[in-house]
Amino acid sequence: MIIFPAVDLQNGKAVRLKQGRAEESTIFNDDPVEAALHWQNQGAEWLHLIDLDGAFQGRSVNADLVARISKALDIPIELGGGVRDEKAARMWFDAGVTRLIIGTMALEKPKEYARLCALFPGRIGVSLDAVDGRLKTRGWVTDAGLTVDEVMPRLVDDGTAFIVYTDIARDGMQSGVNMPMLTHLAQTSPVPVVAAGGVATLDDIKALYPLSVEAHLQGAISGRAIYEGTLDLPEAMAWIRAQKA
């Protein structure tokens, strides 16, 4: 089970949002490269980057910043936020990103999404962001008119390599994970699932861990909790290693 530290990029800084609202932004570090290096030094195996500028504006201004982060790190990076065409995907891969997380494009332009999966096999995942099971797009502000179960078969057929499931109501709220939904998804998805939204304490990691052994949970993303210290990244990783010993 992988714990993915999250670094969200907005206006050149590392921030965290509450429930995806742009106006609910907290700056955690003026230097995202420094933030990324901190989590690598804490033992992170992956870094989770979100381009909030791209998500809200539909285009990115952070390519140079992401390239600097990639150059500074030895661990792989996954990135999401505003990746809505092949040009954007190529830009991020050229910047050193290992895999991409697609949201809006996967739900609104299925043919283009399937083509992207074919162009970059094993490197394209989908972000399923939901409130009460209803999927949202365009930076979580538009109702997609679909549920997770309705869209899953098509996404798998399109070549989706992995899924990031975010419970929007819990994102940045440190309220605990949505275990019923994550259990259902990890047990039914044929591709790896990454949990996001509400990962607040070591107890959440302990609750999720069995799904990484018995089902298709690959890991969990944590942002505000590791920045504010309610989840200690080295302690959580040590606990996971102890289960495997």
From TrEMBL:
Q: What is this protein identified as?
A: 1-(5-phosphoribosyl)-5-[(5-phosphoribosylamino)methylideneamino] imidazole-4-carboxamide isomerase
Q: Which UniProt keywords apply?
A: Amino-acid biosynthesis, Cytoplasm, Histidine biosynthesis, Isomerase
CDD domains on file? HisA
Lineage, top ranks: Bacteria, Pseudomonadati, Thermodesulfobacteriota, Desulfovibrionia, Desulfovibrionales
A GO cellular component term found in this entry reads: cytoplasm
Q: Which pathway does the database say it acts in?
A: Amino-acid biosynthesis; L-histidine biosynthesis; L-histidine from 5-phospho-alpha-D-ribose 1-diphosphate: step 4/9
List the catalytic activities from the record: 1-(5-phospho-beta-D-ribosyl)-5-[(5-phospho-beta-D-ribosylamino)methylideneamino]imidazole-4-carboxamide = 5-[(5-phospho-1-deoxy-D-ribulos-1-ylimino)methylamino]-1-(5-phospho-beta-D-ribosyl)imidazole-4-carboxamide
Primary location class: cytoplasm
Catalytic center residues: 8, 129
Which InterPro entries does the entry mention?
A: Aldolase_TIM, His_biosynth, HisA/PriA, HisA_bact_arch, Isoase_HisA-like, RibuloseP-bd_barrel
> Where is this gene product found?
Cytoplasm
UniProt source species: Mailhella massiliensis
EC class, as a word, reads isomerase
